[in-house]
Amino acid sequence: MAEIRVEPLAAAKIEAAAQLLASSFLDDQGMVVLFPKQTPDQLKNAMQSWFVATLNLWEAQGQTMLAAYDGDQLVGVLLSGHSALKVSGFAQLKWSLTVGWLCGLGAVVRTAQHDQERQKQFNSASAHIVEFVAVDATKRGRGIGRDLFVAYHQMIGEGASIWLETSRQENLSIFTKLGYRERSRSFSLGAKFVQMVRPPQRKDCIASS
Asked: Whole-model pTM?
């Protein structure tokens, strides 16, 4: 069994990452609500197109995107932004036109609506935000998600405050083990969300852990 390798996601791997993300989030209500009244095939295609457009936007904006590889196979991704990061008007327009054309205008409107509602919960002016984490379904149970988070925490530094949001109750215990604590709950677009935060880690706690 090859050792899992974590490194920045290359632009050439965005399509593969989008496929992995779409497959992982097809049953996630937090994503499904962006694409109502879709057949299963339509939903998969729309979600994959949404992820391709979003990953291209984030790559252009220099956001953190990590990939986990088992040999040459992409088996996991972690995508992160920052509360202080502002997307340029041109980049936002390009994303909106692309998603509107491929996924429908409703996906653009619902994404913007959820972002506005989420900002009420993520009210820190200086915090990193884990946007998405996904692991290949055939590779789960090998600690790939943990490896992605460990690499991410090391990259941004233990003194950083990190936020995340999930609509999956089963994820709460996983994130808790990684140092995240529930901060709030919200209801958006018909889906329930839990916001969690990992506060800056004290050096003495890190040394003794």
From this structure: 0.91
- DSSP conformation class of 84: T
Q: Which residues of the chain have pLDDT under 70?
A: 1-2, 123-125, 202-209
**Range(s) of the domain holding residue 69:** 4-208
- What CATH number is given to the structural domain containing 194? 3.40.630.30
Location of structure tokens 């290359």: 10
DSSP state of 172: H
- What sign does the dihedral 3-162-35-106 (CA atoms) show? negative
Helices 89-103 and 105-119 pack at an angle, to 10 degrees, of: 130
Number of domains in the chain: 1
From residue 181, alpha-carbon distances to 55, 74, 79, 161, 194 in Å are: 27, 29, 19, 12, 10
Question: How confident is the model at residue 125, as a pLDDT?
Answer: 64
